[in-house]
Design brief:
It contains 10 helices and no strands.
């Protein structure tokens, strides 16, 4: 079985990756600010679900094929970039119109399901996750690793990611009263929309 000497450094590297600003953080931040901590937590679960997908893909060896295939990598990269731009444009349009905030307040449950789906798709369409797992997992697996070792190592990024983004959702959700003004919410939509569009363009324009 993997030792603590392998698990702790792996968890630390995963934590640094989760905390780095990126599409996942922007999605959780926006849902937490707009719809509260429950929607933020749903987004955190969506990100964690995406990590689970990539963990399974990496364990099956498919992530290495994605990382090695320029065509497959490009397809996922472009799809992810287009989706981020789509989310960003929607946020920018919401900021411009300044409408729908009260409706979001009254439909918390659909908002949670929507947040989960958006976060899940955002993470699954990020090819950087595939490269991350391909580069990282083998380095921390013991020699002659068992299925249990692989499962244990896959659970760590899921747990670390969920803890971090749950913290983000709760902190931002606790500040929601300060963010309740329509002008503030429009500013949040404008900023996160711009960030998402910029991230989408950056992902599409970067080489493998």
């Amino acid at each position: 079985m993997a030792s603590w000497g392998q698990l702790l450094p792996f968890g630390g590297v995963v934590a640094l990756g989760a905390m780095a600003p990126g599409p996942d953080f922007a999605v959780v931040l926006r849902h937490s600010a707009m719809s509260g901590r429950r929607a933020g937590f749903a987004a955190a679960l969506g990100i964690t679900g995406g990590i689970m997908v990539w963990s399974v893909v990496a364990a099956l060896g498919l992530a290495s094929l994605l990382a090695a295939s320029a065509i497959a990598y490009t397809v996922v990269k472009v799809a992810g970039a287009v989706y981020l731009v789509y989310l960003g444009v929607r946020a920018l349009l919401a900021a411009r119109k300044g409408e729908g905030y009260e409706a979001r307040e009254a439909t918390a449950e659909p908002g949670m399901a929507h947040a989960f789906r958006q976060a899940l798709v955002t993470n699954v369409l990020n090819p950087k996750c595939a490269v991350f797992f391909v580069a990282l997992l083998p380095q921390f697996l013991p020699a002659h690793a068992t299925v249990g070792d692989t499962v244990l190592l896959a659970l760590i990024p899921m747990a670390v990611t969920l803890l971090w983004f749950t913290l983000v959702a709760n902190v931002v959700g606790a500040m929601r009263k300060l963010l309740a003004a329509k002008r503030v919410r429009r500013a949040i939509d404008a900023v996160t929309g711009t960030v998402l569009v910029a991230l989408g363009i950056r992902i599409a324009s970067t080489a493998q």
